[in-house]
Structure formats: structure tokens, C-alpha cells
Design a protein that fits this description.
The structure is a single chain. The protein is α+β, with helices and mostly antiparallel strands. It has two domains: 5-58 and 262-412, no CATH class; 64-254, no CATH class. Helix content is 54%, strand content 19%. It is built from 14 helices and ten strands. The chain has helices at 5-15, 21-62, 78-86, 120-123, 152-158, 198-201, 209-215, 235-244, 256-298, 300-308, 313-344, 346-357, 378-405, 408-412; strands at 66-70, 91-106, 109-118, 133-135, 147-151, 165-173, 180-193, 204-208, 224-229, 250-254. Strands 2-3-8-5-7-6 form a six-stranded mixed barrel.
């Protein structure tokens, strides 16, 4: 099989038994450094991809893709509005809701909550909470039943169980302009849900739309209509289509407006982590520079003989570029394979470490998630491996140039 002479010699140098064991040690260290850097980058980006995917899935499972509300007053003609919105293109579900803040007390515990008044028959079109009920059913929220479904973390804070009575305190306007009168109503816990996101599990309480209207004195009005699209990521564009179908009295907000800064910060953090962990690969690339500089000094006589026999300078450079790229390529390949394996099993690995050390990596009361997610993207792996190879290539240029620039006569004078 034909191979260019620089590639052949560079491969022979890489396989040859070293007279200087320190060079062999630096070569092994360079391979390990590149492999560790590439693997760490793949794991870090995969975990951050997993965080983003899980947060998208869980946030959009509870929040609507878009919300229609009236700019000044509550919506009283919501049955007709809901029917009209349901017939719009790309809208797969529409459901009215009432949303307001309140307080709840039980067994001496007091917590602030966000009350969602929903219609059980249509809520499943826009939300997945019904799929995450540990106890009870959405259909248990009958009108006038004064039943409530709590998030798991909220129920634990209140020490509440299914069947327990609890008091919900809603603020009501008083006689004066700044006067607020708290109104207390008793509800019964009908179920507990767990969507796996602490922000929702610790604050949300669901009740029937009619019960929420009575609690907040909204009559037949609702806060708005929640929409679900066939493509959540297209919500900003589809929102404009919905606005064109409505009067000027209405406004539409999509889910990105509520969490836009959060997801921007997540993307910025991902970029910064890529740069920071890439420094590990850069350190390994400096090891390649050190290794090749020592190899060039070790092979000065060989270089001089090759130059004397007519080997061009660029082909001498090719010898040492090949040697450095073999070291970098082996490290990048090993790191890529190891990183993909670790990223795909990071949950099990993290759980084993937690069990052995007794330390919880993601406390649910601090982070949105309670377990380490991972999502390996082939494009990310390719970009990381190619970036590592480019850094290794750049690291070979100076030592290869020094090798090609060494005068043959000086190298052979004392041989």
C-alpha cells in the first residue's frame, strides 16, 4: 500500500522503541491529556444538553406554549374564544384557566402558593400534569367540590395527605384603595402530582375553574386561555398568527417570554464551559510541543541524513506533523469513545457515587432537577474531536518547522 514518505517515517518514529524513556512518558501523557480533555468536554456538554432538554420538557409540560389574555379586564366570553382558538392552524389544544396567588395553611404550616383554576376535561390538552399524578385524578376536581390537587413538595411542606382539609386564604380588595381583606375557604386534598421540577411541585395547587372563580370573586370570568401548538419551538412565530386572529383588546404571550433569560443564561453557560474545559486539551497540546521538541533534538542526525539525501524541508515538517497528529488522533479517538460512554451512563455513575459518598449532587430544593440528565449530540462530539485535532495540529507546527530549519552540516559535524 502506497504511503507518502513523511507519513511513513512519522509513523515509524511513533512506533519505534525510545532510547529516551522520558520522551515516551511525555507521549503517553499527551495522549492521556487529549483523551481526558475530549472526554470531559463531551460529558460536560452532554449533561448541559440534558439539562436544557429536561427543562424544556418539564417547563412546557406545565406551562402553555402560549397564553391569551385581555389587556384590561378578565375574559368573560371564554367559551366562544376557546372554540375559535382551537380551530386555528397549528393549535392542538386550548383551555381556560384562572391563575392567582394565595396562601394555604395546614397543621400549623403556612405556605404561599399559586392557584390554577382548570377545567379537568380540557386541561389535558395543554398540560401533562394529569400524567404525573401520584394520587387522585383530575376528574376528582368537580365544580363546587372544593377539592385541590397539590404538588408533591408542597404537600410535604404542609404535611398534607389525600383527604386532609386545608385552608386557602385569598386576598380580596377592601373598602379603601389600598385595603386588602383576606378571605378564608376550606378545601380538601384530592390528589398529589409530581412533575419532577421543584419550582412547580413546591408552589402549584390545582382546583376546578368554578371553585377558583368563587375563591377570587371572578364571576364567570377567567384569567386567560392557554394554548398548545404542534411545535413548541415555533411558539414565537405562531403567537403572531394567533394575535392576527384576535381583537386589539387581547394580548398573547408565548413561553419564551417567561423563561427567555433563563435559557439564554443556560446557553451562555454552555459556551463558557466549552471554553474552560477546552483548556485541558490545550494543556495536552503543549505536552505535544514538548514531546516533539525533544524528538527533534533526539533525531537531529536522522534529519540531517534525510536532508542530505534530498528530502525537502516541507516533507521533513510532514514527518513530525504526522507524529504529533498520531498522538493527538489516538487521544482524541480514545477521549471521544470514552466521553460518549460516560455521557450515556452518567446517571448511573452519579447515583453510584452518591450512594458511596452520601453526597447529593442535585438537591431538589436547590436545582430544578433531582438527577443528572444527559443528552449526547453527534454534532457536539464531532466539533469537540475536530477542535482537539486542530489544536494538536497547531501544536506540531513550531517543532516541525524547527526540525526542517536545522542545518544538516551542523547536525553531522560530530557524528
Amino acid at each position: 500500500m502506497f504511503r507518502p514518505l513523511p507519513v511513513y517515517i512519522g509513523a515509524r518514529y511513533t512506533r519505534a522503541r525510545r532510547r529516551n524513556h522520558f520522551i515516551s512518558f511525555i507521549s503517553a501523557t499527551s495522549i492521556m491529556g487529549v483523551a481526558l480533555g475530549v472526554a470531559a468536554l463531551i460529558v460536560v456538554l452532554s449533561v448541559m444538553n440534558g439539562f436544557e432538554r429536561e427543562l424544556h420538557r418539564r417547563i412546557l409540560g406545565v406551562l402553555a406554549h402560549a397564553t391569551v389574555f385581555r389587556r384590561v379586564h378578565v375574559i368573560t366570553d371564554w367559551p366562544a374564544l376557546t372554540g375559535r382558538l382551537s380551530r386555528l392552524p397549528h393549535v392542538t389544544g386550548a383551555a381556560p384557566f384562572i391563575r392567582s396567588a394565595a396562601m394555604v395553611t395546614h397543621a400549623g404550616s403556612v405556605n404561599g402558593i399559586v392557584v390554577y383554576g382548570v377545567m379537568p376535561g380540557v386541561e389535558e390538552r395543554v398540560s401533562v400534569i394529569g400524567d404525573h399524578l401520584r394520587q387522585g385524578r383530575l376528574s376528582d376536581l368537580a365544580p363546587g367540590s372544593r377539592r385541590v390537587i397539590l404538588g408533591r413538595a408542597l404537600a410535604e411542606k404542609l404535611h398534607a395527605h389525600v383527604g386532609d382539609p386545608l385552608n386557602v386564604i385569598a386576598p380580596q380588595p377592601g373598602g379603601g384603595p389600598d385595603e386588602i381583606i383576606p378571605e378564608l375557604q376550606r378545601f380538601t386534598v384530592a390528589g398529589i402530582f409530581d412533575v419532577g421540577m421543584y419550582e412547580f411541585d413546591s408552589t402549584l395547587a390545582l382546583m376546578h375553574l368554578d371553585d377558583a372563580a368563587g375563591l377570587f370573586h371572578m364571576g364567570r370570568g377567567v384569567s386567560g386561555v392557554r394554548l398548545r401548538f404542534d411545535d413548541a419551538l415555533a411558539a414565537p412565530a405562531l403567537k403572531d398568527d394567533v394575535m392576527q386572529a384576535l381583537d386589539d383588546d387581547y394580548a398573547v404571550a408565548d413561553w419564551t417570554q417567561f423563561y427567555v433569560n433563563f435559557f439564554k443564561a443556560l446557553k451562555s453557560q454552555k459556551s463558557m464551559m466549552f471554553i474552560i474545559v477546552l483548556l485541558v486539551v490545550l494543556v495536552a497540546a503543549f505536552n505535544i510541543v514538548s514531546m516533539l521538541v525533544m524528538v527533534v533534538r533526539d533525531k537531529l542526525a536522522d534529519i540531517a541524513i534525510l536532508r542530505t539525501l534530498g528530502l525537502a524541508r516541507r516533507r521533513v515538517m510532514g514527518v513530525f506533523i504526522t507524529q504529533g497528529m498520531i498522538v493527538g488522533g489516538v487521544g482524541a479517538a480514545a477521549g471521544g469513545a470514552g466521553g460518549v460512554y460516560l455521557a450515556r451512563h452518567i446517571h448511573n455513575i452519579a447515583r453510584s457515587i452518591e450512594q458511596a459518598s452520601g453526597v447529593r449532587f442535585l438537591p431538589p430544593d436547590v436545582y430544578f432537577l433531582s438527577q443528572v440528565p444527559s443528552d449526547v449530540h453527534g454534532l457536539d462530539v464531532a466539533v469537540i474531536v475536530i477542535t482537539a485535532l486542530v489544536l494538536c495540529l497547531l501544536a506540531t507546527l513550531y517543532p516541525a518547522w524547527r526540525a526542517a530549519a536545522s542545518p544538516p552540516a551542523e547536525a553531522l559535524r560530530y557524528e
